[in-house]
Write a structure and sequence with these properties.
Phosphatase 2c, domain 1, 7-stranded mixed beta sheet, kinase activity, metal-binding
């Protein structure tokens, strides 16, 4: 059964029900309780479940929340039609009845449907006004059953009291909130309308917040997929593995990047960079620098010359954030790697026998500070040697300083050789336990 279908104990209806004799203080206490329990997350489905968990059985014997389909799939406000073409999805249902599985069959969670304007639900959507039906007669029950092709709907709705409140946010109808009381229960009265409308208004705000979060995340993930390589193809003579872990759980993107760029004459340019900060702004700056790096690499420049020109590009871009970069070029025929550094942490080399060395590259200033030149360093990269390039988020954090982080990384890399995908997993898992951290990029390149 779907998690969005909540079954409550019907025995609680008598003692919990807010009826016509409910005092103002009791209603205010109910709304206060609802405010503390609704919107605990930015997940739309969870928000809807929380609302119904509050409303049933205190307000009704059964309830459901329908949200416009385009709002869920695209995060956009759809136009509110008045001709019965509003496409909505049932996000959650709750019941406190003796026959809960009839309600599950009648109103399945996840169903996408259109409520014609002659039904109370369609009227609420079309007019943006609450609709109260004290008792549904047989004709209305049959109309609901015919509209959805399920006779069980007429069976359980006929004789019920129905209250449908539109979910309004920013002047738009997000969907509707429907509450049902069975024939054996006291029907809804006009006094109930204000209470339910207030609950619907708070629900709509939470749903809209969830919509904005989901849209922001979709945008950020689309940006990330366009800026970072979806997959790196290992050039001949190299085995490559990589990991990217953004610090921002909300946006899901950051300012770190990496690249493996094959070149002529069995050469390969390796790049790892870091735009300070994280989130969409850092990612946008990163995308500009990564594109420039790929273009410059196509000119077959050595790493020092590439960084010199990239520094000029960064200066012209007027980046607000500081950026660092490490560029290496592996020459398979010579068995060597040339490296230049623009304010970045030095790479590590894991020798075939398992010892680890931090390569003594000469650090230059970060990008965009108009450096005169960057110094080129050259090292041997024998078959079986593993070059480790990374950003500072991997070795620096609140739990330890950078020297401790570098020592920890060397310890993780030292020892019997492992597959490089396994090494990536071990290193990232050890670092990701930090509660507060920066973006992390890790690039491993093994000479074959």
């Amino acid at each position: 059964m779907d998690l969005g279908f909540l079954i409550k104990d019907p025995r609680g209806r008598t003692e919990l029900r807010l009826g016509g004799a409910t005092t103002l203080e009791q209603r205010l206490a109910f709304l206060n309780d609802a405010s503390t329990r609704i919107g605990s997350t930015l997940d739309l489905a969870q928000t809807c479940r929380e609302v119904l968990d509050v409303a049933v059985p205190r307000c009704a014997d059964a309830g459901g929340i329908m949200v416009q389909e385009r709002l869920i799939t695209e995060g956009e406000f759809p136009v509110r039609p008045t001709d019965g073409t509003a496409l909505v999805r049932r996000v959650a249902t709750a019941v406190a009845v003796e026959n809960p599985f009839d309600w599950d069959r009648a109103f399945p969670v996840g169903e996408v449907a259109v409520y014609p304007p002659y039904l109370p639900q369609g009227q609420a959507m079309a007019t943006a006004r609450t609709v109260l039906v004290q008792r549904l007669d047989q004709n209305v029950g049959d109309e609901n059953a015919r509209a959805f092709g399920r006779d069980v709907i007429a069976k359980i709705l006929t004789g019920c009291s129905l209250l449908v409140a539109p979910l309004l946010a920013r002047g738009n109808v997000l969907g509707f909130f429907v509450l049902v009381r069975e024939p054996c229960s006291e029907p809804f009265r006009s006094a109930d309308v204000a209470l339910v409308e207030e609950l619907a208004a708070r629900t709509a705000i939470c749903i809209d917040n969830a919509r904005l979060y989901a849209r922001e995340r979709r945008t950020a993930l689309a940006l990330q997929s366009s800026l970072l390589p979806a997959a790196l193809t290992a050039p001949p003579g190299l085995e490559v593995a990589h990991r990217y872990l953004p610090a921002s759980d909300l946006a899901g993107v950051g300012g770190d990047w990496f690249d493996v760029i094959p070149q002529a004459r069995e050469r390969t340019t390796l790049v790892v960079g870091d735009v300070m900060g994280h989130g969409v702004r850092a990612a946008a700056a990163m995308g500009q620098l990564r594109t420039a790096t790929q273009t410059l690499a196509s000119l077959d420049l050595d790493p020092a010359e590439l960084l010199y020109r990239l520094d000029r590009v960064a200066e012209q871009l007027h980046l607000e954030q500081i950026a660092t970069c490490l560029c290496a070029r592996y020459d398979r025929a010579a068995g060597t790697v040339q490296i230049a550094c623009a304010g970045h942490l030095p790479p590590m080399l894991v020798h075939p026998h398992g010892t680890v060395e931090t390569l003594p590259v000469v650090p230059g200033p970060p990008l965009g500070i108009s450096s005169e030149r960057y110094e080129l360093c050259e090292f041997a990269l024998p078959a079986g040697g593993l070059l480790v390039l990374y950003t500072d988020g991997l070795v620096e954090g609140r739990e330890w300083d950078i020297d401790e982080g570098l020592a920890k990384l060397r310890g993780l890399l030292t020892g019997p050789p492992l597959g490089i995908e396994r090494i990536c997993d071990v290193v990232i898992r050890a670092q990701a336990t930090q509660t507060e951290r920066d973006d992390i990029a890790l690039l491993l390149v093994k000479a074959l």
